[in-house]
Amino acid sequence: MNHVDWRVLMLAHVFPRAPTDPMGAFVLHLADALVARGMRIEVVAPHAASLADTETFGTVRVHRFRYAPARWERLAYTGVMHELVARSIVNKILFVVFLFAFLIETLHRSVSTRPHILHAHWWMPGGFVGALASCATRVPLVVTTHGTDIEMLRRARWAMPLARWVFARARAIVCVSTYLREQLLTLRVADAARVHVVPQPVHPLFRDLRLEIRDCNLHSPISNLQSPISNLILTVARLTKQKSIDTLIDALAILRARGCEARLKIIGDGPERAALEQHARDLNVHECVEFLGALPQAELPAHYARAAVFALPSIREGVGLVFAEALLCGTPIIGTASGGVTDIIRDGETGLLVPERDARALADAIERVLRDRAFAARLVANGAALVRERFAPERIAAQYSQIYQSVIDNRL
Predict the structure, then answer these.
(1) N-term to C-term CA, the chain
(2) C-beta separation of 353 from 338 below 8 A
(3) What DSSP letter does each residue of 362-376 carry, written as one string?
């Protein structure tokens, strides 16, 4: 498909606050990939303290709307928005103001940029605002779901009529995993004919550094598994209950009891950190668990490459790009047989799958990878090939281009 000179206005309630900010980075990476195909991308996102009202990331222009005095702009970039809104009546009122400000900025940018497409990320709040703006401007709407918005629907059935209206207004709906598409159809909030599966692009850092990492650390298919820290288990996640990191700590305790001198490194932060640190102390494995907190994205490849295995036993993960990142760094992966993880992990072929909340099964899987180096190497080789094929930004941009073309041509 040839490069196209389309103008796309993206709507997102989470967008990087700096080029190195991991929060919502996949939206920026998609925008960059679309720019590479000749599109002009502008973004409407929330303002926050110390951020400029308008800024440019490469050639992507970002317009940040203010929805309260700076000290009250607390809904974005501080956690999962719908959970924050549910905590207090003040936050609920603030959210109504947030929606109004989001809509006003979207309408203003729709008039000034005259986009061919409104592309909203997450059906709420971006999809809702996009649907209202599409009604007012007649600009066709595309909505991408990322997981947390679908989980919110599962727990708040009262929101389903609103979701049905948003998805009915969208000319095309994109889910970042097969699991999310199945969830949308099971919840009966979207027309199957308009729902597509297109993954998120892997961070360019991992694509660009892949050969360097392979040259430095992976001279043979299993060389990083033979390093002095070959029993190191790594996980990278926001520390919430949904990520089930306590199950991973349980699995470590089981491994240690079996005589395996495994260690666990946890990268990430979140509301469950204190409880997880206490859990490690309760199981007397705290000296074998290292909490590093959130790290800059640029530091992650080295951590992935030095680990013997990457494990994340999250429950109903939307897609799990961290698994793709680990594979590109030469590290075998273990996840749970639920959610979008299964788009990356084909059990026994590109990684290992275990049941949710099953610490013993997780320990067995980790032990298998640690003991069978040739098997681990095959998992990495197969998994990295799959990721390079399916998660390449160029391929994903091409898929979105086809969807945009169909929408513009009124074929969807």
Answers:
(1) 18
(2) no
(3) HHHHHHHHHH-HHHH
Structural contact between residues 325 and 206, judged by C-beta atoms closer than 8 angstroms: yes
Sign of CA dihedral 117, 120, 121, 127: negative
Residues 6 or more apart in contact with residue 10 via CB below 8 angstroms: 27, 31, 41, 42, 43, 44, 119, 120, 121
Asked if 395 contacts 1 with a C-beta cutoff of 8 angstroms, the reply is no
Number of C-beta neighbours around residue 169 at 10 A? 18
The contacts of residue 8 (CB under 8 Å, 6+ apart) are: 34, 39, 40, 41, 42, 115, 116, 117, 118, 119, 404
Give burial (CB, 10 Å; 0-12/13-18/19+) of 409: exposed
Return d(Cα 153, Cα 318) in angstroms, integer: 13
Cβ atoms within 10 Å, residue 96: 11
- Local structure of 151: helix, strand or coil: helix
Cβ within 8 Å of residue 127, ≥6 positions away: 11, 120, 141, 143, 149, 166, 167, 170
Tens digits of per-residue pLDDT, 313-365?
999 898 899 999 999 999 999 999 989 999 999 999 999 999 999 999 999 99
Please, what are the domains in the chain? 7-201+392-408 (3.40.50.2000), 204-390 (3.40.50.2000)
Interval 12-40 mean pLDDT = 93
Do residues 139 and 169 lie in contact, with contact meaning Cβ atoms separated by under 8 Å?
A: no
